[in-house]
Design goal:
Elements: E1 25-28, E2 33-37, H1 39-56, E3 64-65, H2 77-94, E4 99-103, H3 110-113, E5 123-129, H4 139-159, E6 163-168, E7 195-198, E8 234-237, H5 254-257, H6 269-287, E9 291-293, H7 307-312, H8 324-327, H9 331-335, E10 338-342, H10 348-361, H11 375-393, E11 406-410, H12 440-465, H13 467-475, H14 477-480, H15 488-493
Parallel strand pairs: 3-4, 4-5, 5-6, 6-9
Antiparallel strand pairs: 1-2, 7-8, 10-11
């Protein structure tokens, strides 16, 4: 994530002290630019590339090279392009059949990369697409964001050429332990409380320093600006997804107040992850030139980041990527069957701020009229502004969030009656699975029924085996006034015979 390469001054402890990107030169966080370019460092990197090519150009297992991984978004783009050009020439001079892969510097923009190195063979653009650093949202927001990458990749394929999704995962939060550095985290992360599970045994053995973990100790230092580490023998992992219980299941809000470790009967993680994986693969495989899941496996059991664990759980399908469950996974999203709406619980000031931001992105700075709006008029107008902005930008990966004030809602009914007759793929979308618990009247009815049945059984038992109770019932005016009390069938079933014949049952008073 580009957030993982923010200014070094934002953290007090850093696992990677080179996060400030001094490789390219001297960075000035005050004006967000480089005061000086370090050409000696750049030249050193080119020399290293040359050595790598000399050593591995004839090796059958080496197919290509990426000269630098994730140069951060503040890297001077012209200097980076120049470095890419010089590295490409070094590679092609000695390894003409190698592929040359360039990271997009977290700027996956056709205006930056369109036409770059046009006509050069064997080059591709690498982009890393994660949702772990996204703002929390409903499942349908993550679904739409995943499918929207298809449009962005297609546009880049047309403007630049081959695109490879060099990193992606199934994580929808920032909870994975040490994701942002050893015992460190980004300021403000994770956004929601994390789930904790027993930490795994150290894969390098118990002779490593600090092992085995002491289950009697809390978080150990050094400490960063965020929390990420073992606590009393428990390690943080991604949150569970909870089954929505009410409202439109595609945009239910149970996830907002859901515990990180969902109750078994409400846990919908397998369902959400399986659908999210299919939608991501649909987006990456349909128009791009390949994709790599990060990572192959993890130390702590974390299927959202472990390809092997996700495969074992059935989240990632095996075999043919042209399977109908993948090729049709983004049907609803591709058709635009959702709209972006402002939540009516959002603060008016936040809604006005989001509206102004959208208008300014369109070049409309004369937007003081927004300040005079309030009530339903404000929210209705915000629906239009934010909805139009999302609709325009969603094909390049825009999300319907706007600082947590908006959410996606379905434009169609939660049934398959609107499917086109010629649609060849099976209807399979988890957004139509809803957990509906018993309502209050069902509970009251069940309690009343149980009470009546239990009372009736107790009455019959007492009539048969308790002389005193039987005598009092028979002599009561209420009982004698009921015509059925003289029926032989009723009298027999309720033991209404001479009570002298009722057997005595002695109960232990102890």
């Amino acid at each position: 994530s580009s957030l993982n390469s923010e200014f070094g001054g934002l953290t007090t402890f850093e696992h990677w002290p080179i996060r400030t990107a001094e490789w390219m030169g001297t960075f000035n966080p005050q004006n967000v630019s480089y005061d000086k370019i370090n050409y000696d460092n750049i030249q050193h990197s080119l020399e290293v590339i040359d050595l790598i090519v000399d050593r591995h150009s004839g090796h059958p297992a080496v197919l290509g090279l990426e000269p630098v991984n994730e140069p951060w978004q503040y890297t001077p783009i012209e200097e980076l392009k120049k470095f890419y050009w010089e590295g490409y020439l070094l590679v092609k001079r000695k390894a003409p059949y190698w592929k040359y892969i360039m990271h997009d510097s977290f700027r996956f923009d056709v205006n930056i990369w369109g036409g770059f190195m046009k006509g050069c063979p064997d080059r591709a653009l690498d982009t890393h697409i994660y949702q772990a650093w996204n703002e929390p949202g409903s499942r349908v927001q993550f679904y739409n964001n995943a499918c929207a990458q298809k449009g962005a990749i297609a546009a880049m394929e047309k403007a630049f050429g081959p695109v490879i999704v060099g990193e992606w995962s199934l994580a929808t939060d920032n909870c994975a332990m040490w994701l942002n550095g050893f015992n460190d985290n980004l300021p403000g992360f994770p956004r929601l409380p994390c789930k904790y599970i027993p930490c795994s045994d150290p894969y390098m053995g118990f002779d490593q320093p600090g092992t085995p973990l002491d289950p009697g100790k809390g978080l150990q230092g050094p400490f960063g600006t965020g929390i990420s580490g073992p606590i009393y023998g428990m390690c943080p992992v991604d949150r569970d997804w909870i089954r929505e219980s009410s409202g439109d299941p595609t945009t239910g809000t149970d996830w907002i107040k859901a515990p990180p470790d969902a109750p078994a009967h409400r846990d919908d993680t397998d369902n959400v992850m399986a659908h999210l994986a299919k939608k991501k693969i649909n987006a990456f495989s349909g128009v791009g030139h390949g994709f790599y899941f990060w990572n192959f496996r993890t130390d702590v059991y974390e299927p959202q980041w472990s390809y092997m664990a996700a495969l074992e759980k059935g989240w990632i399908p095996e075999g043919n990527l042209n399977d109908e469950s993948i090729s049709g996974a983004c049907r609803k999203e591709d058709r635009g069957e959702f709209k972006c709406s402002v939540m009516r619980t959002a603060l008016p000031s936040a809604v006005r701020g989001a509206m102004k931001w959208c208008l300014e992105q369109w070049g409309n700075y004369d937007n003081h009229w927004v300040d005079n709006m309030d009530g339903d008029d404000l929210y209705d107008q915000a629906d239009k502004v934010l909805g139009d902005f999302w609709e325009e930008k969603r094909s390049i990966g825009a999300t319907c969030d706007f600082g947590g004030i908006a959410t996606l809602t379905s434009l169609t009914n939660s049934t398959d009656e609107n499917m086109e007759d010629d649609w060849p793929y099976p209807f399979d979308d988890d957004s139509y699975i809803v957990y509906v618990g018993p309502n209050i009247w069902s509970i009251v009815g069940a309690v009343v029924a149980a009470s009546l049945i239990g009372g009736g059984i107790g009455f019959v038992f007492a009539m048969r085996y308790n002389k005193g109770f039987n005598r009092r019932v028979r002599s009561s005016s209420l009982f004698n006034s009921i015509p059925l009390s003289h029926s032989s069938a009723v009298r027999s079933s309720l033991a209404i015979f001479d009570y002298e014949d009722i057997p005595d049952i002695e109960f232990d008073k102890e």
